[in-house]
Automatic annotation (TrEMBL):
Residues 1-21 form the signal peptide. It comes from Geofilum rubicundum JCM 15548. Residues 140-259 form the MotA/TolQ/ExbB proton channel domain. Keywords: Cell membrane, Membrane, Protein transport, Signal, Transmembrane, Transmembrane helix, Transport. This is MotA/TolQ/ExbB proton channel family protein.
Length: 276
């Protein structure tokens, strides 16, 4: 009997331990599933929040860009179609000339060291005609000046020097072509703006005279519209002035390169003449 009771006791303890283990596993599984569901729900909410935030940012950015465009358009209309159109034309024509000059100056830039080396090698191998051919095949004012100097090689070094200086002045004039028009647009844009402002102020005082009394709202509106043309003219002048200064500095760099390269060419021709 004692053995039977001991067996039953051991069997009961084993069953209890097994049931406890099963319940524990079930609890862990349930807890794990609950945690996974919570994490997935949190991730889904975060994704939705990020997507909604990005959509809101994109809509705000698009609204802001559209708002800037509308603001510029409304200010242009408020400033008066006549004077604002003249200011806009000054900006368009000025930028057109600036872009043309920048392209021309970039194409006029030459690697003078390589050109001088090619001319010196051509003089040693094929003489003056070969050097002239190198200049003909090279783009830019420096090559044109070199060609004019080499074309008068038979007349002596002094004639070559005078020819290089004279043709250098011609090329400098070509480089500076169009700068006077850019200066005109830089000067005329603020003048048009000031003219629009003065005429707007006259209209504001006419309104005051017609009303017989000073109304702050009416006068402020007229003055605000009048000042828009001045601001527009100043903005146009600033933009064109930046391009003008860049073009002038570019021309100065090319002219300095031309003068330095011309001196080097004369030295090469003197050495070549001495070798002959």
């Amino acid at each position: 009997m004692k053995k039977l009771f001991a067996f039953l006791a051991v069997f009961g303890m084993l069953n209890f331990a097994g049931a406890s283990a099963i319940f524990a596993q079930q609890d862990e599984t349930t807890t794990t599933d609950t945690e996974v569901v919570v994490e997935e729900t949190a991730e889904a909410e975060e994704v939705e929040i990020v997507e909604s935030t990005s959509e809101v940012d994109e809509e705000a950015l698009a609204a802001e860009e559209q708002g800037i465009h509308k603001q510029i358009k409304s200010k242009f209309i408020e400033g008066g179609a006549v004077f604002m159109s003249f200011v806009l034309l000054a900006l368009i024509f000025g930028l057109a000339i600036c872009i043309e000059r920048i392209i021309y100056l970039n194409l006029s830039t030459t690697n003078t060291k390589k050109l001088l080396q090619n001319i010196e090698e051509a003089l040693q191998e094929g003489g003056v005609e070969a050097a002239k051919e190198v200049c003909r095949n090279t783009r830019g004012p420096v090559a044109s000046i070199f060609y004019q100097g080499l074309d008068r090689y038979d007349e002596g070094i002094e004639v070559i020097e005078k020819s290089v200086i004279s043709y250098g002045s011609v090329q400098m004039g070509l480089l500076e072509k169009g700068l006077t028009w850019i200066s005109l647009f830089i000067a005329i844009a603020p003048m048009l703006g000031f003219m629009g402002t003065v005429i707007g102020m006259i209209d504001a005082f006419d309104q005051i005279q017609a009303m017989g009394d000073i109304s702050a709202s009416a006068v402020a509106g007229g003055i605000k519209v009048a000042l828009i043309t001045t601001v527009s003219g100043l903005i146009v002048a600033i933009i064109l002035q930046v391009f003008y200064n860049y073009i002038v500095s570019k021309i100065d760099g090319i002219v300095n390169t031309m003068e330095d390269a011309s001196i080097s060419l004369l030295d090469i021709l003197v050495k070549y003449n001495m070798k002959k």
